[in-house]
Every structure is written in C-alpha cells, then in structure tokens.
What does this fold into?
Amino acid sequence: MMTKHYLVSFYIILSMLCVENIAVANPANKTVSDLSASVLRVKVQLANGSSGLGSAVVIAKNEVITNCHVVNNATNIAIIVNGEQHKATAIKADWHHDLCMLTVENLEVPFVKMGASKALQYETSIFTISYPNETKAPVSTFGSVKGLFPMDDSVIIRASSSFRLGASGGGAFDDAGNLVGIITLKSKGNAAQYFFMPVEWVQALISKQAQALGVKNEKPFWAMPASQRPYFMQVVQPYVSQEWSTLLKVALEWVQNEPNTAESWFYLAAAEYATKDYSNAEEHLKKVLALNNKHIQSIEYLVRISQIKASVDDPLSQLAQLD
It folds into this structure.
C-alpha cells in the first residue's frame, strides 16, 4: 500500500508530464528580424523642458501603440524611423490600462499581426523587441509565460522575458510572430518580475475617438496607492522580501475575492509553506494545479513537501539528522 508521500510524488509526476507536453520551439531568426522593423523608438519632449525615450509597436497603417506613461505630459511626440522623426498628431488613450495609440502620418512601416493574450498558457515561450536605454537598434529578449492574471476581460501577462528602461511600449510576441503583449512595468529589486499589458486592450482602443495631443492624463492602475492595486501586484514585495505574515494576509483576501484564480491559491500556499503549515500548503497547491496543471512553481513546492514528509516518515533519515 502506497504511503501518502508516495501518492503526492505520483501526482507530481503526472503534473510534470502535462508540463512537458507544452514545449515549443524558439522563434526563427527571420521572424525576429522581420518584426524588428515594426518596433520603433519613441522620443518625447516634456512640458518641463526635459526629454524622454520609449518604444512603440506599429499595429495598423499610421498607427502605433505605446504606454501612456511614455507620452505623459509630452508637448511633442516623435516616432523614429531610420533616423528620421515622424511627428505624432493625435492620440487614443486608455490611461487606466496605460495604453496609448498614436496617429503618425506617412508612416511607411509594416504592421504586426495581433495574437490573443487570453489564449496564452503558462510556460509558452515569448520574446520581446524594444529600444532600451540609448540603443540605436532594437533589442530582443527571450523567455516564457510565468503568470496570467485575469483583469477587465483579459489577462495581465507575467513573463521571464526581461526588459530595461526605455523598453516601455515595446512588443511581446509568440513564436509565430503574433503580438501578445505590450511591455509595461516591472517590480523592484534583483528578483524583478516583468509584466505586459494584453492585446485585447489594444484592440479595444482602435474603435475609440482620437483626440489632440495634450489631453488631460490619469494615473494607471499600477500607480494607485498600494491597497488599491491589483492583488498580483500586492503580493510581489512580501513574497520577494519573505514577509510571510503580510503575504498570508493579502493572499487570504485574494482567494476570497478571486477563488478561481490559480495565482491567488499559489501565494497563499507559498506563505503557508514558509510558516511550516505543510498540510494546508499541500492542499492549496493541489488546488492551483486543478486550476492550472502547468504551474511549475506549485509542482516544485509539492516536491519539497513530499521530501519533507518522506524524511519525517523515514526513521533512518531522522537518525541521520541527529548525527
């Protein structure tokens, strides 16, 4: 008869097999090269006399998408194509979601194809193209989806594809070359998490009425007071800094408000594991995998719990710890 920790291990192996089935190939070099022509540098002049840089993706004829925080308070916005400046003449703004669509006349640049952020799965590979810092040529980074957070009829994407200052407004693409996200924000510190706005919000902007530049701006959701930010933002700092009591409090509130979100249960289980509440942690990690069987971090935690339980059940292991 199998013991409980062997049953857990069997469950973990089955989950790992599910994860292995989603492996995908990296994008072809030609795909990345072709798309690089559709990602451009943004240069802005601000009301205080200073200047700023960002990135943008061409999504239609004479239309580019970038972050609103890139063009916030700008008196002049230019899109750079082969060293030449093309002036933006109008804007469609979704300030809350930090997405701004700019009209740029005579923009003879190919535009990208739209994917579907909501169709992404954990561990699906994606890559970014942007203009970080003062780079003259577009820069690409490669990674995979690590989190999908439901919000306003779509999902915020967290991925391991890193980016630097100036990359805001650049694109995240799947291996087929479809635009699936817009580079937007990252958390602080060395263990930064990287977040992308979904293309569904970009598509919603297309039908909006364009306005003249200089319209009054509003704060995006991520710049609100900490208690008003989405839960996926509230858990980052206590998780990274190992403030387990704070994480437990936020996660408990999260699961109560969003019981069908896998990440809410994961962060609750992470806090329980750290405080050695292994039984509840195990139960809630299984809940995560029931909602999303590709959640690798949950599998890793279950492996650790299984090893801890095996050690407790094994008298020889306990004797070894006493030596």
